[in-house]
Specification:
Blueprint (H helix, E strand, L loop, with lengths): L3 E4 L4 E3 L2 H8 L23 H7 L5 E3 L2 E4 L6
Parallel strand pairs: 1-4
Antiparallel strand pairs: 1-2, 3-4
Length: 74
């Protein structure tokens, strides 16, 4: 089981670093435990909290999900 960023109650689910880049148009912050990021693997290799804070995005955390509510989809 891995982290997922859930946008608007499942309207969009971000499961890979490439999904993160495609949606937010920014590179995520690499987790210190990894030497590099493989774009098509899970979000465990990025620091999700730091990446969302860098973008000034409010979220709630529940289990393995980072939940974000937006006023409109990107």
């Amino acid at each position: 089981m891995c982290n997922i960023i859930v946008i608007n109650n499942g309207e969009i689910e971000i499961e890979t670093p490439q999904d993160f880049i495609d949606y937010f148009k920014e590179d995520p912050i690499k987790d210190d435990m990894y030497s590099e990021i493989s774009l098509d693997c899970c979000l465990c290799q990025i620091d999700v909290e730091a990446s969302l804070k860098k973008l000034s995005i409010d979220y709630t955390w529940e289990g393995m999900d980072y939940n974000i509510t937006t006023n409109s989809s990107k």
